[in-house]
Structures are given as structure tokens and as C-alpha cells.
Amino acid sequence: MTRTANCPLSAAKAQILERLSAHGGARMSDLVDHLLGARSLRDLAASALAVSMAMRTDVGLGAADDFWNSSKTILLRWRDSSTKG
Known about the structure:
By secondary structure, the protein is mainly alpha-helical. Helix content is 86%, strand content 0%.
């Protein structure tokens, strides 16, 4: 995989991690580790969904849903931009 192919993944991870840090929570480091382990945009989507489910008990349903919705928006934007280029 080339360096250019990794740019959308890295950018999406950074943006999703920024959204996660805005919500906080008791298990933040575990959730961050889960996101950082993703190797593709599809993998990152699955990780972000799992993180949002885990967040429900720490920060509540509303915040977890907000995180998932913003993650989906980020992932779709990067997926679309990577298929155009």
C-alpha cells in the first residue's frame, strides 16, 4: 500500500479521534486504542461503531449517537474523496 493510499485513513482517524476527545469518558484510552488499530476505512467504520456502543454507558446515548453520526460523515467524505482521486 502506498503512502498516498494511507492518507484518507490517517486523516479520518485524526478527525474521529478529535470528535472522541470532545466527549471524554472513563475508558478513553481503551477507545482510542480501538480506533488506532484500524487498517482501512471499513475497519475504522466498524471500530467507530463499536466505540460508540461502548460510549453509551460512559457518556450517554445522545453523546454516543452524536459521535457515531459525526464519524459516519467523516468516513463517507473520505471514502468518496478517495474514490474520486
